[in-house]
Amino acid sequence: DRPNDKLLLALVVVASTAIALALVWLLRSRSNSLEETRDLKQILPLPILATVPQRGDGRLSLEESLDRQPLSHSYQLLQAHMRMLPQQVRAIAICSWAPQEGRSSVAHNLALVEAKSGQRVLLIDAHHRISPPTALAFQRTEAAETNGSPSWQSTVQKVIPGFEVLPQVTASLTTNYRDWLVLLEQARERYDRVILDCPPACQNADAALLASLSDGVLWVVHPDLLGRQGVEAAAETLQTWSTRLLGQVVVGVEDTLPPAVPDRRYLVSSEV
Questions:
Q1: Which of 45, 93, 159, 191 sits CB 3.0–4.6 Å from 214 for a disulfide?
Q2: 51 strand-pairing partners
Q3: What predicted TM-score, i.e. pTM, was given to this entire model?
């Protein structure tokens, strides 16, 4: 008897489909690229608070109105998420796994939109490794106050009303941990928001130490630059940071994603 042609055709179609799907899975599993934001969230399951498209140097202009700048929507959305945090969450560490992911731009832009909405903001540049003449290095008397103000206040630079920068703090976290603790405590008393631009987490322990001093961590990731292996390495490191993670900002993504429902495991408690 001749086999049923329709059944044979169906079996061929099913087998071909299975082989094609297997090949796709194999290629994707071996690829270091992340094709979709969904792939990123599977590896790094933090709520996405904002997506930022690639535009110029990534920084908002100080002079131009925010409403006329293409990146403003992303940072206004991020600002809205920040406003939902408990009032005690004042010091926020901006961290990333590798250099050039856009961490410093995110820190600058968040500080700018907060200042333009009436907040008093201090941006602490804590990621420079080469000490220029103007860099702040803690002394034994660093915590002492002069005329009612801490000594680090004299190195603060005004950007616009409400937005000030403490530039290039080069003091080691491991040997000056207590001084950093005092600095941040004093800054919390003087500003509505303190933003720390941290060094890359892959380079040394400084980012982890700054995260431990902050009230919460905002993670910045550039999937195209970092790749699957980089995101996996970051996710492994962040397992010990989970109680302080607020969410992530995804850089280099053109489409605007709806806000993700936060996973309560990663949200800072109101008791912080």
A1: 93
A2: 250
A3: 0.76
